[in-house]
Specification:
9-stranded antiparallel sheet; 2 helices; 4-stranded antiparallel sheet; 16 strands; single chain; 2 domains; about 5% helix; Jelly Rolls
């Protein structure tokens, strides 16, 4: 613990999205109480541990599309494909899903989607037909399969990086304290809250994702203290779980996540 806080009282809070006051699993409010009353005289807090269920999809809604554009310039036809959102445990499953979507449409050419397990590279090949083609990714699905946004050529396209079905390496916990410098709950308003604090949580996962595994992040090395003000009366704690600061909430598909916090309080 930092010497800055050694003289303060500490209150541990174990927050579960299942015990939320309002909101949804991935974006909720939690009422802070200690001994039946609000947390008083708070000067800071620390993130100790986060437990996240591996139930979020590695192919998500809005990050699942690719197009094949056939024909020479001026005579092109675009075919649109959507890979079903879901949890893909192997790259082979993802390849099969892409191949299935291509086979559902009557393209002029015939295509094969393959995957090299050694290099991790995915390739789309024209196996029949004579039309030149391009592969286009209108959303961020290219980052999953390792392709650039647009590939142009004649016969085949290979990714430039390995397929990534592990999902993001970092999640972001965004928090906001609804607090007031006054000791009474009735005087607290959210407008008095400090700006949201965002903590990046690194995820240590294996090479093969396992549906439902519990990912534990323990801040053992350097506990991250965040001052929220001077002698605040903390009322509610808002948590949001996303894979980047500006991204939509991560969908945990009905599974709760937990977070362990410590609040630092000056003497009454």
């Amino acid at each position: 613990m930092s010497t800055l806080y050694q003289s303060y009282k500490t209150t541990a809070v174990f927050v579960s999205s299942g015990a939320r006051t309002s909101g949804v699993i991935e974006n909720f409010n939690y009422q802070l109480v200690s001994g039946g009353s609000d947390l008083r005289n708070v000067v800071g807090w620390s993130l100790i541990q986060v437990i996240i269920p591996r139930t979020y999809y590695n192919v998500t809604v809005g990050v699942q599309r690719f197009n094949i554009i056939e024909g020479p310039p001026g005579f092109q036809t675009t075919f649109f494909f959507i890979v079903p959102a879901g949890f893909y445990t192997t790259a082979a499953q993802l390849v099969t899903a892409m191949q299935t979507q291509i086979n559902l449409q009557a393209t002029a050419n015939t295509y094969s989607v393959t995957y090299d397990p050694i290099s991790g590279i995915l390739t789309i090949t024209r196996t029949a037909g004579v039309q030149p083609f391009e592969v286009q990714f209108p959303d961020a699905f290219n980052s999953v399969v390792g392709f650039p946004t647009l590939s142009t050529g004649q016969v085949l396209y290979s990714g430039v990086s390995p397929v990534n079905i592990n999902g993001p390496n970092t999640m972001f916990i965004e928090s906001r304290i609804i607090a007031s410098s006054m000791p009474s709950r009735t005087t607290a308003v959210e407008a008095n809250s400090p700006s949201p604090i965002v903590v990046a949580v690194p995820l240590q996962t294996g090479q093969t994702p396992v549906l439902g595994e519990r990912i534990v992040y323990a801040n053992n090395q350097n506990v991250m203290q965040k001052l929220i003000g001077s002698n605040m009366c903390c009322l509610d704690f808002k948590l949001r779980f996303s894979n980047s600061f500006s991204s939509p909430d991560v969908n945990l598909n009905g599974e709760n996540w937990e977070i362990h916090l410590v609040f630092y309080q000056s003497p009454e």
